[in-house]
Design brief:
alpha+beta; Phosphorylase Kinase, domain 1; five-stranded antiparallel beta sheet; two-stranded antiparallel ribbon; 7 strands; 33% helix; transferase; ATP-binding
């Protein structure tokens, strides 16, 4: 496993730190690498790649809003013998109690994000000579997500 991670992450340094952990679905471990710490989730079941790809897409979508701090997803890796590993930025977790109010505000902003994007797009439609700053994020008009996500191993198809 460590040799595979070194190759996939193109790092010479791969040193586990902290304690490994396991939930009811996957195991996790933090590693120091040449480019900083990462967190690796591992699951050896055949559905692991689909589950981790959905999680990666979800984290990318959350990260792109800039509204709430989530680990930056890096890579899904197939494991020899089956299953997959999901590599993401390591975030040092601490007690939430002092940040609960801030997190609540961020969640509220996140729930309004699509509505604000759509309002901004509508305002741009009525503006002559919009600047060429590059593509703006687009709001969505229908329910769903651009990839299959999972609740555990159960696919939640809402594409």
């Amino acid at each position: 496993m460590e040799q595979l991670l070194r190759a996939e992450l193109r790092t010479k340094t791969l040193r586990a730190f902290g304690s490994s952990g396991a939930g009811c679905i996957s195991e996790g471990r933090a590693y120091d690498t040449d480019t900083g710490p990462v967190f690796v989730k591992v699951n050896r079941r055949t559905q692991a790649r689909q589950m981790f790809e959905g999680e990666m897409a979800s984290l990318e979508a959350l990260h792109s809003t800039g509204l709430v701090r989530v680990p930056k997803p890096m890579k899904v890796i197939d494991l020899p013998g089956g299953g997959a590993a999901f590599v993401m930025e390591y975030l040092k977790m601490k007690s939430l109690s002092s940040q609960a109010s801030k997190l609540g505000d961020q969640m509220a902003d996140l729930h309004l994000y699509n509505q604000k994007l759509r309002e901004k797009a509508k305002a741009r439609e009525n503006t002559v000579g919009c600047g060429a700053e590059g593509p703006e994020p687009q709001g969505v008009t229908k329910f769903g997500f651009n990839t299959v996500t999972c609740c555990g191993f159960i696919p939640q198809v809402s594409v």
